[in-house]
């Protein structure tokens, strides 16, 4: 009798386990944290700061420059590895990514409002070959316009190992951010003709369009920073409302953003997870940075094709998985029946 009772208990425990697995697969479990990003160890870059450095404790170039002069920027690059490396050192402009953050990566996102840029003033890219454990100094010449410039010109010296990046892509790498983080390092360069100059930040709404990244239609609003100054603490709320009903159909928030001088980014607003009809909609965008406030509004049309693409891929918020609940009810019924039958056998014993 004990053997039979033990078998019944094992069967009951297995039912509980199956129920937990099924329920867990639908309810969801916490995602595993991503591996921490580590700084590149296959190359080093150190700025050799000149006498006109404004911030002596900074690990980047922060320079007051004079109109009509030529500024030498010296960067020491080192190969700490045991094999020869050929590195590429590229002058770049600081820009703003679509995440709403200032970045120092090769990009063509400088706004047309810029008086000048770091790449326009600076000599071209340099290729340097380093033996194992060897270091060399590369020099770039930055020519300041005769009339100088207002505010800040912000850029960087981007050092990369092209061969290592190409090998990573060949072996399955896909994220340019991860590749840059592992196989490249950048030294920022901030140039000022008038370091104490105060400027009023000016933002402007550029073109608004429907984009289809990953076949998922979304509204992309171009935010332009017309000011030659870097700023942070950018908070945003974007709402899309139906022109016909006035009801909100989508919302996207931005937290702790930043923008590089004279740059732009696309503020992306997914169209939500409810079916939408073709027609007119309105984008209302509210941005703040400290005490500064900007409000933009733009009307746009959602075509029948765009509405169909959106409605095809969405999953409504309150959709019901009837088959899941049916399966769950069946498992519960089996468990209740098994517990009742097992209890009855116990009482007979």
From TrEMBL:
InterPro entries: WxLIP_HBD (IPR021759), WxLIP_PGBD (IPR010317). Pfam families: WxLIP_HBD, WxLIP_PGBD. Residues 46-160 form the WxL Interacting Protein peptidoglycan binding domain. Residues 176-311 form the WxL Interacting Protein host binding domain. Keywords: Membrane, Transmembrane, Transmembrane helix. The keyword Transmembrane applies. This is Cell surface protein. It comes from Levilactobacillus paucivorans. The chain crosses the membrane at residues 322-343.
């Amino acid at each position: 009798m004990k053997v039979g009772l033990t078998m019944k208990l094992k069967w009951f425990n297995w039912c509980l386990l199956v129920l937990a697995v099924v329920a867990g697969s639908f309810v969801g479990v916490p995602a595993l944290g991503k591996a921490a990003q580590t700084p590149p160890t296959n190359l080093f870059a150190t700025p050799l700061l000149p006498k006109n450095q404004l911030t002596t404790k900074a690990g980047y170039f922060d320079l007051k420059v004079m109109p009509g002069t030529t500024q030498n920027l010296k960067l020491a690059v080192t190969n700490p590895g045991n094999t020869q490396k050929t590195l590429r050192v590229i002058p770049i402009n600081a820009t703003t990514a679509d995440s709403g953050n200032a970045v120092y990566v090769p990009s063509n996102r400088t706004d047309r409002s810029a008086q000048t840029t770091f790449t326009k003033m600076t000599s071209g890219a340099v290729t340097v070959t380093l033996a194992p454990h060897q270091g060399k100094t590369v020099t770039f010449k930055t020519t300041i316009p005769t009339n100088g410039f207002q505010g800040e010109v912000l850029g960087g010296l981007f050092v990369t190992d092209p061969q290592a990046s190409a090998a990573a892509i060949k072996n399955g790498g896909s994220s340019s951010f991860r590749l840059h983080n592992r196989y490249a390092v950048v030294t920022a360069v901030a140039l000022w003709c008038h370091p104490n100059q105060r400027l009023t930040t000016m933002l402007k709404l550029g073109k608004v369009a429907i984009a289809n990244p990953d076949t998922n239609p979304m509204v992309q609003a171009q935010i332009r920073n017309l000011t030659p100054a870097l700023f942070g603490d950018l908070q945003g709320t974007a709402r899309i409302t139906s022109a016909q009903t006035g009801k909100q159909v989508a919302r996207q928030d931005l937290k702790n953003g930043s923008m590089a001088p004279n740059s732009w980014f696309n503020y992306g607003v997914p169209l939500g997870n409810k079916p939408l009809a073709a027609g007119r909609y309105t984008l209302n965008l509210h941005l703040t940075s400290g005490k500064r406030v900007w409000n933009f509004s733009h009307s746009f049309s959602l075509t029948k094709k765009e509405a169909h693409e959106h409605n095809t891929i969405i999953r409504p918020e309150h959709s019901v998985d009837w088959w899941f609940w049916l399966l769950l009810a069946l498992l519960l019924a089996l468990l209740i029946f098994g517990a009742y039958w097992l209890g009855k056998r116990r009482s007979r014993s």
